[in-house]
Structure formats: structure tokens, C-alpha cells
């Protein structure tokens, strides 16, 4: 006979996987097209869920501190292989948060499921998904990439718009603004961070953040 703890685990796991899949597959992935982070988010959500579920005493709230402590550890986790962009780090924080909430939420009374508490958990997840959806639809994220540029003579405030036109011709991108980083006068080159409207169907890649530059915002002349 299936135990109550096992049934509760399956319900929590189903909610966790479903909600995180909706966020990752329908909200995060369509814009970024980063399969590496898709893979990371899904496995991280499942790992955090099981880690907390089996460490938590479901009949006592005394161990809630364990869940909060582990949540803090995972929320500040950094991937040493590559710097994570702000958007990816935000989604990682969101996925971990929902996994922790699902694992530690009290959804039972006297060894019986309380469907009212299950409904509260589901409503919480729906609210998070809805707000994330609104942010993705209403707040337009600027697409950018780094360019090593050989026209140092154009890297002045007076020739700002001339530089943008030159970059448009040479890259074929609909560039909206440019930030200038390090300038090497010996080699007549500089590093630019170019913001542009992405072409339809363009896929993101992991090469865009290769350079770390000190940004200098041009003022319009």
C-alpha cells in the first residue's frame, strides 16, 4: 500500500516539475535559446526539491531552518565555467525559490492532504508564473554583443552617430546604441558593446560575453 509520505512526495514533485517546466520552456527559452541553461534549470529544480524534501521533517517545523539555509547556499551559487548574465541568474533564483517552496510547504493536516493548502500552493505558483509572463512581455530586454572595432577615430562624442552608421553597414544589425570600452591607440582598436534589435528568429549564443570592458556612455553631441 502506498504510504502517505510517498503520495505527498509525488504531488509535490508533480507541482514542482510542472511549474518550473512552464517557466523554463515557455517563458525563458523562447528568447534566450540557451539549451545549456534549460538543462541546468530543470536538473537544479529537481535536485533542490529532493534534497530539501528528504531533509525536512514533514511533521515538524523545527527543521525549517535547514531549508532556509540550503536555499541561501544555492541562491548565491555561481558557475565558475562561465559568468552568468543577469537574466539567467534571475531565472536560476526563481527556479530554486519555487523548488524550495514546493518542498517545504505544509499541505497536510493529521496525515491527510489538505486540498485548501494545496490550492494555496498552486495559486502562489500561478501568481509567480503570471508576473514572470508580464515581465517578459512588457519589459523589452535589449540584445547586445561585444565588437572589437578598428575605427578609433570615430570613438568620440562628436562622431557617435557616424560610428553607429558605420557599424550598421559592417554588421548588418539594426543598432540602437553603443557603449565604448577599452581603447588601444597603439593598435588603433577598441572594444564596443553594441545594442541592437535582433533579427526575427535569431538565436542567442554563449560567445557574446567574451570581453569584459569598462563601459563609457557617450553623450549625444
Q: What attributes characterize this protein structure?
A:
alpha+beta, elongated, 221 residues, two-stranded antiparallel ribbon, single chain, 6 helices
List strands and helices in order, with pairings.
Blueprint: H1 4-32, H2 35-55, H3 64-75, H4 86-104, E1 108-109, E2 112-113, H5 115-138, E3 143-149, H6 160-171, E4 174-184, E5 189-197, E6 216-217
Antiparallel strand pairs: 1-2, 3-5, 4-5, 4-6
Helix pairs in contact: 1-2, 1-4, 1-5, 2-4, 3-4
Give an account of the 3D structure:
The protein is α+β, with helices and mostly antiparallel strands and 221 residues long. It has two domains: 135 residues, no CATH class; 75 residues, no CATH class. The chain has six helices and six strands. It has a four-stranded antiparallel beta sheet, covered by helices on one side. It has a two-stranded antiparallel ribbon with strand order 1-2. A hairpin with a 4-residue loop joins strand 4 and strand 5. Helix 1 runs antiparallel to helix 2 and helix 2 runs parallel beside helix 4. The longest helix has 29 residues. The chain is elongated. The C terminus is likely disordered.
